[in-house]
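Letters spell out the chain; backbone shape is given numerically. Both lines appear below:
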Amino acid sequence: MLSDEQLEIISEAIQPLFQYLEKEVIVDIARRIQKTLTYTRTAELQALSMKELGYSPARIRREVMKILNADPEYRKQVAKNTLEYKKEVRDIINEITKEAYKANHELVAGAGNMAWINDLSVWKDAGKTLMDNSFLSQLTEAFSSQTAGELKNLTRTTGFKTMHGCESIGNAYRNELDKAVIKICSGTFSHEKVLHDTVHHLAQSGLRSIDFESGYSMQLDTAARLAIRTGCHQLAGKVMDKNIAQSGENLVYVDKHNGARNTGTGHANHEQWQGKVYYIRPGRDYKEEAERIGQKEITDLWEATGYSVDGTHENDSLGLYGYNCRHNSHPWFEGASTFPVDLPEPPPVTINGKTYDYYAMTQKMRSMERGIRALKREKEALEALGMDTTEIRAKIRRKTAEYKEFCGICNIRPKTERLRYECGTSDLGKTQAWRKYREAEFENELKSKTLGASDAVGDGSQPVCIGQIDISKKKEAIRYFGNEIRDSEIEKLYVIDKEGNVYYNKGQEDSISFGTLDLTGCNVLHNHPKSNGIVSFSKDDFEVIRDSGAVDWYLVNEEFDYHLRKIKPMKGITYNQAWKWYMEDLIEAGIEEEQHLIMKSLAKRGYIEYERKKADRGPVGQN
């Protein structure tokens, strides 16, 4: 399975490619219109004269178009720009599609690996082991092909939404030019105003994937994100299915989330089947298990949700793991598993006379997010054209503040990542969205190293090597490992040496062994259990820090993160001496925890750099 956060990061990683494409097309159209309008001066003068004589707007438009169509220079420029535009658009779509294929393959492979590691963790927590993941590469290839096909289909039919329907991307320059000419020749629009209007209307629409038969369209970056999200979610479901099959489990739990789809009937109504336990194959009576967990009865998964784990039925695209579904299935271990604690759904709120339930809140948030991204599209295009962006920047600030205020009133976390608009490059590696994906991938790598760590330790007398990391990512690794051991009831230890080798050990409630490990140049992290109190580095810690070659020391507990760096040798300094310095520096007893103040006294005398800050429990890469 994949967490909702992992799915968001993976699916958003590809969006900058399509946002780059979108900005390039909008700017190209605007520049070509700007260039072509230099040939409309004669028509503009005629329109102005006719307006003064009282001719109707319709008559003026006809006359202006007649003049322009009779002007060989104007026709030549339009034909030249139309041809060049279509070629430019075709080339950039082909370029973006190729880049999307490459990114898609990597994202799907990463999703498969994350799903496998997450599943390993689930089975391990239940005291069971998964061994065989030979199926993973075949599944990854299949889903990579599926999502690549969907991305290709998205870019086949693109265009913009207008007042009169949708226009294809190939005709967009000519259509927008005609609108611009009509405005210019009305006598009430300057060239700059016409150009600004063109950018505004294209940005409000956004480049869209269009079904011209039905008229349905969706912004291209959003459609690409949903294609990746749905494909990776379905892949994670299949990984779970394979793991369930190899372990012989027959019960699954379908999780629940606030704001689940509650419209439609049957499988399409997700709210009615979420949060329940189901069997995969019929043949056994689960009445006793249903009574144990307080569920009226345990029924067939496929009949309830439209999803078949073992492939004996066709899956319903409206049900579990269908298009844009957020639900996951989990193995349910009979006689042992328990329901997770439900997060309460925010209560309805009334804002400006309108009452929003939770689903309506989320829909309003999505609408506000789309509006802010549209403003950012407009700003980026105006900047590329060298036009003034003062007004649009002010709008973005105001709308962003309104969005955050709405989320605050509703008591929902703002999804500021959905306000992001990255269109500056077609190189995904240079985008924030792709960096977030790399961070999630690295966190998954760290998680894979910790899964078997406790089993490898033995009696705890000697730390064991559990793998190697990129030493340039030491900071992220310390943060992840710190949160892994922060709430442990016994002391645990991670050591990262100069080559990035990671060593792990577990000890007792108040002690941990370094064994014979050479700590020279290493980064050392351990925890203090709650039973020890919320305290900084202890007397035993101080003596190891003083006598070892390690420079950077990290400590975590339930409330704080600590970092200590040795600045100069402390040979000959006893803990008693450090305590005396603390007493000299003490202003008022009982204000701060003693071990923390002892470290501050050492820092005051230049032996160490020392920092204590509130515990950072967020995921790797989150600021």
